[in-house]
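Student: Send me a single protein entry containing the residue sequence and its fold in token form, directly below this note:

Tutor:
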Amino acid sequence: MSNPIQGWHLHPQLADDTHPVAQLPLCELRLMDDANHPWLILVPRVEDAVEWTDLDEASQLQLNAEINQACRALQVFRPYKLNIAALGNLVSQLHVHVIARFEDDIAWPRPVWGTATAKPYSPESLIERIKRLQAALAG
């Protein structure tokens, strides 16, 4: 597996837009600060990783396993669909979006990007959402 953490840092934009949920073996799992959608971000703690291909094969397999773990955690919200994407057009640091989608969500059926202004979590709802996700990850 690629050497995680050595020289790694979280991109400032990701730090500003997300909240920590869990430390997985490879990734930092974070919640996007947008209450419009249950939305997780996985950021591999690998220095200078920009593309999937920047990870060695073992890290790619681990990232895939952690994406599956994030998908299972989001099942607590009973989504209609899960969207998984690694775009990196605005933030080049490798990160993967896992978004729970619903037929009645604000952006359905379009992508969530650019559809509506992000709705930040209230402090209370943020704590509740993170606790619910952490319980789903543990169970």
